[in-house]
Amino acid sequence: MDLSTQIAADLLSIQAVFFRPEEPFTWASGIKSPVYCDNRLTLTAPEVRTHVENGLAQLVREAFPEAEVLMGTSTAGIAHAAIVGHLMGLPMGYVRSSNKDHGRQNRIEGKLLPGQKVVVVEDLISTGGSVIDVVEALREAGAEVLGVVSIFTYGMKRGLERLAEANVKNISLTNFDCIAAVAAQEGYIKPEDVRRLLAFRDNPSDESWIGGTK
Q1: What is the pLDDT of residue 214?
Q2: 118 - beta bridge partners?
Q3: Which one, of 2, 24, 3, 51, lies nearest residue 173 by Cα?
């Protein structure tokens, strides 16, 4: 079993990624989604956590061997950056969603020197907006951001375009297509649901997949 398939199976087994095409979830934006994602659950499942953290370390070593510092996204990426940093013997910090309103009013927590080569650690990428904001904050602080490693990505067109426009390279342990395929193979969803799920992935605002018409 390759790494992407292993992580997909892991996330499904603990319902960190949970498919419900017949009863869609509603996002804050109002969009109806057949999938619910909570990768924080990986932290409370030791075996899955081990696979995830070793996998993220492997991605950093293979894709960004020059990495000097890991920076987690706030808040979901912080624990993963800390564990992977420990495994790799690298310093880590994290980037707040906004500056603190007290003390030194830091947005970037942890020591970061201008010119240091940084890899951002994120748990989930959908539209890409939040992780791009983190990358821009690090660039403004003088860091050289090599790229992003994440546990899961939807692979949505808008997200891919925004990452490309911002010149941000993301590598994920697994993706929506892989998880949908594994979910069908392991009986979490019906095989015919895969096409509906991918229709959602391609255009989340088009709800025609809900009735099975796509």
Answers
A1: 45
A2: 69, 145
A3: 3
The full DSSP string for 166-204 is TT--EEEEEEHHHHHHHHHHTTSS-TTHHHHHHHHHH-T
φ/ψ of residue 175, rounded to 5: -145, 175
Q: Which whole-number Å values give the CA distances from 169 to 109, 132, 136, in the listed order? A: 23, 10, 13
pLDDT for the residue 99: 61
The full length of the chain comes to: 214
Pairing of strands 117-125, 144-153: parallel
Show the tokens assigned to 9. Answer: 């199976």
pTM check: above 0.90: yes
For residue 25, what are the β-bridge partners? 33
Comparing C-alpha atoms, which of 151, 157, 142, 148 is closest to residue 130? 148
Give the distance, in angstroms, between the CA of residue 111 and the centroid of all CA atoms in the same chain.
Answer: 24
Query: Could you list the mean pLDDT of each consecutive 10-residue stretch along the chain, which spans 214 residues?
Result: 96 95 86 92 98 98 98 95 98 84 69 97 92 95 97 93 96 97 96 93 89 57
